Amino acid sequence: MTVDRSLLHFELALRRERIFVTGHTGFTGGWLVSWLKRIGADVAGFALAPATEPSLFVAANVADGIASTIGDIRDFAALRDAIARHQPSVIIHLAAQPLVSKSFADPIETFATNALGTAHVLEAARLTPHVKAVVCITTDKVYRDQDWVWGYREQDPLGGKDPYSASKACAELVAASYRATLAERGNGVLIANARGGNIIGGGDWSADRIVPDFVRAVMTRNPISLRNPCAVRPWQHVMALVHGYLVLAVRLLSGDSSAADNWNFGPSDEAARTVGDLVEQLSTVWTKPEITYAPGSFPETRFLHLDSTKARSHLGWAPPLSFEDTIDLTASWYRDFAASPSEGAPITVRQIEYYCNALRSHAGR
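User: That's the sequence. What structure does it adopt?
Assistant: Structure tokens below.
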């Protein structure tokens, strides 16, 4: 794998910037912070302790070289204090209760974290003088489920029947309120919502997610149980979403008020495959577990897809990975980590550098 350490344009814009990441102990947060450290940003993180064992946070040494605070975004005083200490120019808000299954078991925690927690982040942001930009990460599940085959666009109505989806739609409304009426009563911070979903990649060990379930099945030599093998999802690598978040953050940081809006970050139509297809493709890179089938314990949408024309056209966001590339990177991360658990950080960095090189090649076509 060829490594080119020169920085891309959007990376250069973030080099030495003070960036505050909520949810840095999570799966996406771990990839985001690892990328920001490689760029040379001054990073602080605020989140609960890792929710899983193992975790990407520990495996990739995410805390090394950053100001890491273990705390709860429901604690406004602690959150505001952490942001005030770091005085960031950019906040990327990832902290959330991210699991649909857990939202049924504990809807109060889900709404408090995802809706009120977002209000806490934005209130602290508008009251902190140096903050210029906030990127709030939500999900593709904020849209009202229409069960149609084409992609949801940013202007389509919000919805959400399950507590997780509804709580994220609430978070979107909170952000819209701050953007429209409250930011100007503070420091004028620019606020954007980034909607993505069905991300995969190395280092995720969450419950009730297909790739971690696959990894556990391979590692324990037990069967993997599929709830809905015919469900179609637009799979994309976590780095593609992190790439989108960084490009959006740079646009906000530059003072472009048109970027203070809602943005979809989803893969091309080619990446929309069934759960069964995903498992088969993972098996070609690593090992194929025995597959069983069982009904799920909570309802799931049959098909969900985002139209990301806006991000591609206006932000120049163009992820270079095919579905096969995404699967290969995902399965090889776990395979290589299983062989050498102490190498989690260099494996992660090598994959980030691979993605950046793929971006250069893609841009030069």
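The longest strand covers residues 42-47.
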